[in-house]
Amino acid sequence: MVLEQKKKHFEKVLKRNISHIIHRKTKDPRIGFVTVTRISLSNDLHNAKIYISILGNKEEQEKCLKGLYSATNFIRSELAHELKRYRFTPSISFHFDKELEKVHQLMMKIEDLGREGDGRESQDATHENQ
Q: What is the DSSP string of 106-127?
């Protein structure tokens, strides 16, 4: 229980600091508008998967992800500086957040069903009036 709370707290600290480093300190022009959506830490807290969302088309997203890959060591060293009070800095890796994509696809399906439903209702009302 305590370990899980510690892990959650450390994930929040990492998310805040990594977001700050990406937005304020990286100078790579390939890195555009990136949102750190969540962080998944290993149980030993030594490995962190950083899940991100990137604004733009597929080409811009790939370019941004390549920029993040090349900036990984810089981001980790800046993170180590920010986390002085901790005994270690976890290894980091960046990943597209596919959960957000799934949610977006689900929302689009719901919207499409809503439009289809609106079309049926207006057709039903037309038939009733005739």
A: HHHHHHHHHHHHHHHHHHHHHH
Classify residue 9 by its DSSP letter. Answer: H
The rounded distance, in Å, linking the Cα atoms of 96 and 65 is 8
Distance, CA of 54 to CA of 125 (rounded, Å): 44
- Mean pLDDT, to the nearest integer, of 81-98? 91
Band of residue 48 on the pLDDT scale cut at 50, 70, 90: very high
Strand bridging mode 47-54 / 34-41:
antiparallel
Q: Which CATH superfamily is domain 2-96 in?
A: K homology (KH) domain (3.30.300.20)
Strand, helix or coil for residue 24 = helix
- Residue in the structure block whose two tokens are 């499409």: 112
Task: Specify the pairing of strand 91-96 against strand 47-54.
Answer: parallel
Domain boundaries, the chain: 2-96, 98-130
> What is the pTM for the complete model shown?
0.75
Sign of CA dihedral 62, 67, 73, 79: negative
Strands 91-96, 34-41: pairing is unpaired
The DSSP letter of residue 130 is: -
